[in-house]
Amino acid sequence: MSIDAIPIHVINPLPTEPGLTGNALPLLREISEMLRRLLETGETAAIDLSALPLTPTDLDWLREKLGEGEIAVTLQANGESTLNETACPGVWWVTHHNENGAVTTEFIEVSFVPELVKAHPQDVTIGWEHLELLISDL
Amino acid sequence: MQGPLIDNLVRQGVSRRTFLKYCATLASMMALPPTAGRAMAEAMAASRRPSVIWLPFQECTGCTESITRSHSPTIEGMIFDMISLDYQETLMAAAGFQAEEALHAAMKDNYGKYLLIVDGSIPLGMDGAYSVIGGRSNVDILKEAAAGAAAIVAMGSCASFGGIPKANPNPTGAVSVSDIIKDKPIVNIPGCPPIPVVMTGVLAHYLTFGTLPELDEKGRPKSFYGETIHDRCYRRPFYDQGKFAKTFDDEGARNGWCLFELGCKGPVTHNACATTKWNGGTSWPVESGHGCLGCSEPDFWDAGGFYKALSMPADPLKFVAVAAVAGAAIGVGASFANRAKKGAAKAAHETTTLADLEK
Prior knowledge:
The complex is a heterodimer. Chain A is of the alpha+beta class. Chain A has helices at about 25-40, 55-65, 120-135, and strands at about 45-50, 70-75, 80-85, 90-95, 105-110. By secondary structure, chain B is α/β, with parallel strands linked by helices. Chain B has two domains: about 5-225, 3-Layer(aba) Sandwich (Rossmann fold), CATH 3.40.50; about 230-359, Cytochrome-c3 Hydrogenase, Chain A, domain 2. At the A-B interface, strand 1 and strand 5 of A face helix 2 of B.
């Protein structure tokens, strides 16, 4: 009897690419669950990628699977931060760099708009006062 | 500089988003939920600066270097805007009587409220004569400063556990802060040096919640020391797959496999290097290809050789034995032969030989 006759086949083959640990795959399911909650209750969530045992290859794999969306936000605050929409709307890839360009933290944020993009009411007030002053001077 | 912190920051050109980003990073480091950064930012932005007194004892200034240089002058520097650092010998301009006066003024004005940071161990040999500042022994100064402190932060392995000064045969009789002070809350932030963000995290926690973070049985903040290096190591999957580097230049080493067999102390070392990394998130020892030395554990210097494997991975019994010798308890039901060997090595304060390095 040949070994092929045994009716077993591997559904999830072991990762073949060196550096790929297989730890990124479960994240896709977690993100999917987060999206479901966002739609049902409006609850936002985030995954701290720097806190997980992921290799650079894992991160590349995850980034490739999530793809690129339409919006890419760049924030200049103590180093550059990028808040990029993935091909799945509502899923944002957030990377914080320090002033030397090194990555300090990396998140996947599941929300309609990332928290950091929104303006704080106190800052809006200051901006508004500034604008009023500007108008009154004209 | 008085008033809420955020006003001070804005005056210095630090925007709210910069601060939010900082808090998000800090929350990540503290293993708080990623969304906790915003709550922290709001609490800290409104806080007023507590007085902090920093006393250096039997130390090498490595801890201060770590804190002040790592991200300087950017992100970690911000925490210094959140506290009033009233005494720090290395950083302060004042010297001599002027400096001692500043110390006593700060202690008097903020009695019962200031945060005391200590780095370095305290020598008790020869009545404390091994380390003296302004004619007074470290142990005297510590007792006086501790009396009026709200809480004490033991910065680095020396202040936390005695560190290298305490290494066999401990010529100066060095002890830790918690060996002397028994009636104050003490946070141990071990590491040689400790990770800067751990210190800023503890301070941020103090500013945000007005309390010290939750501590483990060795007095360390659980958020940073709750897991081992090994638990969070990015090379952990290779350990699980049984892929090990056998020498520092073999195929396994080049492929970034697990460094367990090259003496990595990650499995018994509680610290946050694997997640926070070093030098502004650039890298950390294991990422640079060297195993963890276990510098944040008590008596790491006498734990039996940096390049000796904790055990063979296939034998969990030996693993327990070595962990017990390196750590606290005597292993129960462990391999006797191995324990005796390690115990003898420890007692004899065996030095690292070339053979160890070439293992």
